[in-house]
Amino acid sequence: MWRELLPVGRYGATGGYRRHAWNGADAECRAWFEEQARSRGLAYEVDRNGNQWAWWGDPGAGDAVVTGSHLDSVPDGGAYDGPLGVVSSFAAVDALRGRGARPVRPLAVVNFGDEEGARFGVACTGSRLTTGVLAPERARALTDADGVRLADAMERAGHDPAALGRDDDRLTRIGAFVELHVEQGRALGDHPVGVASAIWPHGRWRFDFHGEANHAGTTRPEDRRDPMAAYAGAVLAAREHTRGGGALATFGRVAVEPNGTNAIASLVRGWLDSRAADEPALEDAVAAVRRAAEEHAAREGVRVEVARESYTPVVSFDVPLRDRLAAAVRAATGREVPVLPTGAGHDAGILSAAVPTAMLFVRNPTGVSHSPAESAEESDCLAGAAALADVLEELACR
Ligand code: GLV
Ligand code: MN
Ligand code: MN
After folding, report:
1. What pLDDT, on a 0 to 100 scale, did the predictor assign at position 244?
2. Can you tell me which atom of ligand 1 is nearest the CA of 343?
3. Given ligand 1 and candidates 84, 361, 370, which is best to mutate, with the most ligand atoms within 8 Å of its CB?
């Protein structure tokens, strides 16, 4: 499975993945998922929000145990963020069958659509639509960098955007959701597998700095209204806030108009990603960056507008389910299992508002993620898939 997926959507010049919602690479990933489902005799379906499901057992029976993750990537992402969870889910199904285990409740593998929000800006679009925290009309109107509407991209990929919307009927048929994911820091130490306790609250804010385009060679310093200078002040403020600890604030994406070397920009649009251990710390971080942006904008004669594009409150995973995961992993390994929070967002975090949800993490030896350099040892991946199989056996077969 891993070898088949590796070349899909990989950009030769960087070695990173460009699997973005409803693009060609995404379609190839989705075809791969369907093939995995069908070749195992699992019932395949796509839900109204474009998420893919592979069912072992009757999807209508209720109290289903669902596992899975996502196949899309950030721009030039790594191979593991997302796909490791989907591949491990199918591997766990194979392991259960190899053990002769028989689910007494339905078991499903899911591929949630557009987890990273790389193309249309909102992360976890598929799970947010399903749980109702993203309104379908807002989702349909999201646009990518070329101005293509999500609704049109979806339609071109063969999915009906009119069907989007909250899916309570589906959610009430799920008894538990478990997502396996590569760990995205170096928090597991000498443990190949860990369990998540919580996800830090996090969100995305768009900062628009409106200035005045002018000639780079003839405009006197006192006549400039340079949005790039104001933006630079905001970036440094985010960096300073991150250095202070407790919160992370990152401008990782910027768009400049008209983007000419010999012209002062008319508009700089920067996206702030901020996360913190608790919501007051997150609010403080965003407020500090916003204040700095306003001060620098005033100094440069620039107007700044700030819009929140998405927000996920703190997530505490279901404690009984989390304990069952930890017990299953402990029984298999004979060791204590790290139970830790993460600053990374996941569909599990969105689902947790509606369904008992938990996560397994597989060790990341370098801690690098959202980069082509992301990696995991094969032996750790196998340990993760085995742990997931144990957990699914405990949840679905007893
Ligand atoms: C998703 O990977 C996120 O944390 O942004
Ligand atoms: Mn990610
Ligand atoms: Mn992910």
Report:
1. 79
2. 4
3. 370
- Percent of the chain at pLDDT exceeding 90: 98
Of all protein residues, the one whose alpha carbon is nearest to atom 5 of ligand 1 is 345
Picking from 274, 293, 310, the residue at the C-terminal end of a domain is 310
| Residue 343 per-residue DSSP state | S
Task: Give residue for tokens 């993203």.
Answer: 134
CATH number at residue 31: 3.40.630.10
The band of 246, judged by pLDDT with boundaries at 50, 70 and 90, is: confident
* Residues 49-102 pLDDT 10s: 999 999 999 999 999 999 999 999 999 999 999 999 999 999 999 999 999 999
Print the domain residue range for 379.
2-200+314-396
For residues 254 and 373, membership in a common domain is answered with no
pTM recorded for the entire structure: 0.96
Q: Which residue owns the Cα nearest ligand 1 atom 1?
A: 345
Choose among 212, 204, 218, 217: nearest CA to 230.
212
For residues 207 and 115, membership in a common domain is answered with no
The dihedral over CA atoms of 10, 16, 18, 24, expressed in degrees to the nearest 10, equals: 0
Q: Please compute the mean of the pLDDT values over residues 348-352 and round it to a whole number.
A: 98
> Do 253 and 330 lie in a common domain?
no
Residues 23 and 45: their CA atoms lie apart, in Å, by: 20
Residue finishing a domain among 255, 286, 310: 310
Q: Which ligand is nearest to the CA of 78?
A: 2
Contact 211, 302 (CB under 8 A): yes
Instruction: Give the residue-averaged pLDDT of 293-305.
Output: 98
Ligand number nearest CA of 124 is: 1
Task: Determine the distance separating the centroid of ligand 3 and the alpha carbon of 81, expressed in angstroms.
Answer: 4
On whether both 220 and 324 belong to a single domain, the answer is no
Atom of ligand 1 nearest to the CA of 116: 1
Same domain, 224 and 295: yes
46 and 165 both lie in a single domain: yes
pLDDT for residue 332: 87
Please identify, by atom number, the ligand 1 atom nearest to the C-alpha of residue 74.
2
The encoded tokens of residue 298 equal 């005033």
Please report the pLDDT score of residue 243 as a whole number: 85
Question: What φ, ψ does residue 342 adopt, rounded to 5°?
Answer: -135, 150
Q: Are 25 and 137 found together in one domain? A: yes
Report the phi/psi class of residue 338: left, alpha or beta, with left for phi > 0 and alpha for psi in -120 to 50. beta
